[in-house]
Amino acid sequence: MSVSAARTPGVRRVRAGAAALILLVLVGQVVAVSVPERRAGLTMACLVLLNVAGALFAVRAARRGDRVAWLLVATGELLTTATNTSMGRATATGAQAWFWIGSTCGITASVVFAAALLAFPAQRARGWQRAALAGEAVAVLGCGFMYLWYFDLRPLLDRPTDWSRWPLLAGFPVGDLLVLMGLSAVVLRGGLNAGSRPVALLTVGFSIAVFSDAAFGAIGDDGNHSTGPLTATLAGIVASLCITLAAMWQSAANGHAGAPRRPWAPAWFSYLPYAAVGAALALMVTVTLHQGQIRTWGGLVLGLILVTAGVAARQIVSLHDSRQHETIDPLTGLVNRVGLNRRLTQALRRGEPIALLLIDLDGFKAVNDSYGHNTGDLLLLEFAATLRANVRGSDLACRIGGDEFVVLQHAVTGEGDVTALARRIQAAAAGNPIRAGERTVTARASIGAALATAGEDGDELRHRADIAMYQAKRAGRHELVIHRPGMLDRRADDAALGQDLEAAVNSGQLRVLYQPMIELATGVPVGAEALVRWHHPVRGVVAPLDFIPIAEQTGAITDVGLYVLEQACREALNWAGDAYVSVNLAARQMQDPALVPAVLDVLDRTGLSPGRLILEITESAIVDDRVAIPAIEELRRHGIRFAIDDFGTGYSSLQYLSRLPADTLKVDRSFVAELDNDGKDSAITEAIIRLADILDLSTVAEGIETPEQAAELRRLGCHTGQGFLYARPLPPDDVRRYFSERRVTADSSHG
């Protein structure tokens, strides 16, 4: 049984208890208002009940988090209970001792409550931030003091007062100022967001308590009700009820619901000091008009209002600018990580249907290293413009650092919405390259996405999107992966696999298989593609899709690639006729300045003719064409041919294709799989083959599995094919036998 499930009965009991408590207090106050002679006793009973319950539940709440703060709340509640009972005894007996005990407990309770509010988690202020926070708190306290002075303290000085009761007359207002200081700190330091929702209810309760005390002093004791004026009494009951319910709520929270959130203050919190200044000025105007002192104070107050308004307006503009700097990326103008966190938290709290798309630009580091940071910045700006142009007004485009972008997509109805947006972004980015001198640089994006689920927080959603992003990176460049239930976080496992891969080449764990490539018109094998397999001593056979991405990340792909190249060149010498061997080059190899001498050195050592070697590359592997294209041209001058693999998948650029010095275009297996005899699904394949003819490129079709597919490819003019229809990947001995037998068969049929 899960922890949350185990606590469900306890949560239900607390909710039932809260409902019963609210009903009991409501009935008690209705009776108290209806029967005045019962009011004092019922009010005192309600307050004592709420204070004792609040203390007990605050102790339980301390076990769920913020231990010190909730224990201070419990202490304050007990002191408040002592205050109410002592004051009640003092009223009933007239004994001064009870009055002084109650006064001491009451003032101490205010100090403890203020300390409790300060103990809740909030933003840490440093340096000038502390001075700014102190100034804002002073503004709020100053406003509170003005109201307490005018409504509570000033009347004491204007009439004969029994100062023997000074704790009640002046001590409690000072205590209220201390509580107001704690409330200001919680609000201004973002404590309402840093803590759980019970803290927000607790803050409301203390705010009402301050109002209740102020109302008690302002309205005054009417002489008939020992518990004070009705407005103040009801406010005090509501305040105690809120504090008790907050403690009950926190005590019932499970570990997830009660977990603290990141402390940050919403924008409106920052305007609280200005609201305090406005309230203070409003009081001054009201008093001036009420006292008929317009001639004496009217001009001075008006001038003060104008001066304060001007300064406040300037400060508000500065505050808005600082908020903009805090949440906006200075380079792209997109929302930054801070702004994203705020909007994401708000959307999840409201239960909005959202999705989070993490976007990485493939090969951005290579662009920075090869073209310089100015070109890298231009690429980031272009991609930022692409995001703005392709997201809706309700969506949020962000840059959270380096080449990392995020889109917070709203009003998501399913994976289809996410896929459509992601593909639109990828297509637009690939179709808008930037100029870097005589070259062009294209932004290609890998995207990992996750749809929000009920009850999860921002960290969980980001974690799932991050897992999807990692899977997209593993799958290759320019990919999209949407997180689904059960998707594993393979980063730790891949890290261990990467360490094992370093020793795989030298220990002979890598095996090279060969899949024959057939001339479709004659059925004669003309070459074979070299495919690597890893025979791990513990894991068994590891598929290329599982270790090639890791090899690229760790840099081991260079050693793996050269090993496969050398094995393939040696094996091709054993094949009948002039059959060629086709070897894949990874993106990282294409950026290696030592690629050309390394390939030529392998040919020298093995003795294979350069004309019998084809190197396969993908279009997306050409991240930096200042390095890759000259390398391709140099190798072609030595007689080595190049094939563009997986053409037609992703977002192929005709501009790139026209500039790439290639000899062959490989039709991806996904298009071949759609072919049938009536030709309705062959339009894309036919277009690729026609394009290759126009560019004077030969074509190779991958993944041929049926005679019908082979026949359709022959009809469309495809030259060569490979697939299970002809042969699976074969070990060296079997591929030699295959070449010998198929050539004999083909020669016999021609004879």
TrEMBL record:
InterPro entries: Biofilm_reg_signaling, EAL_dom, EAL_sf, GGDEF_dom, Nucleotide_cyclase, Rev_trsase/Diguanyl_cyclase. Residues 352-485 form the GGDEF domain. The keyword Repeat does not apply. Residues 494-743 form the EAL domain. Signal peptide: none annotated. The keyword Protein biosynthesis does not apply. Pfam families: EAL, GGDEF. The chain crosses the membrane at residues 42-61, 68-85, 97-120, 132-150, 170-192, 231-250, 271-290, 296-313. Keywords: Membrane, Transmembrane, Transmembrane helix. This is Diguanylate cyclase (GGDEF)-like protein. It comes from Paractinoplanes abujensis.
